[in-house]
């Protein structure tokens, strides 16, 4: 794409008229157009290990319990769901449209020490918490010394 420059500078005419044109071109970003396709929804996850369990937390604001599917199969925990966009109403105009909508799916392989029969999931205040207990033999235990 060829750019025409103004006579008094090296600034392309398109960029001189619209200072955000360069940002939109380079980054594919346009915060002022509501007609653009919404970005893919990718919720943030964290997984930590405690002495007795593995704990997965995911930020899922706006995701309804009915739109969430959590499954465990062959040692793989899968969290899938969707967050739907609000319907645009007649007479409304968006000036900034940055929220993400759509479907997501995240699969995590669990270690052999995870007990698939001890899984608990809770969705509260937009945060999903999944707790997977550890097998008894996987938990550390103290070995006492024998006195002869």
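Sequence proposed for the structure above (148 residues):
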């Amino acid at each position: 794409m060829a750019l025409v420059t103004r006579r008094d500078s090296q600034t392309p005419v398109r960029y001189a008229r619209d200072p955000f044109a360069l940002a939109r071109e380079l980054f594919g970003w346009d915060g002022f157009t509501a007609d653009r396709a919404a970005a893919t929804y990718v919720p943030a996850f964290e997984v930590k290990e405690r002495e007795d369990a593995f704990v997965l937390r995911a930020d899922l604001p706006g995701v309804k319990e009915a739109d969430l599917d959590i499954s465990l199969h062959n040692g793989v925990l899968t969290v899938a769901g969707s967050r739907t966009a609000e319907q645009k109403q007649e007479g409304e105009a968006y000036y900034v449209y940055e929220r993400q909508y759509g479907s997501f799916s995240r699969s995590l392989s669990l270690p052999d020490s995870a007990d698939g029969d001890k899984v608990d999931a809770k969705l509260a205040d937009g945060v999903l918490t999944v707790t997977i207990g550890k097998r008894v033999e996987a938990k550390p235990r103290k070995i006492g010394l024998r006195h002869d």
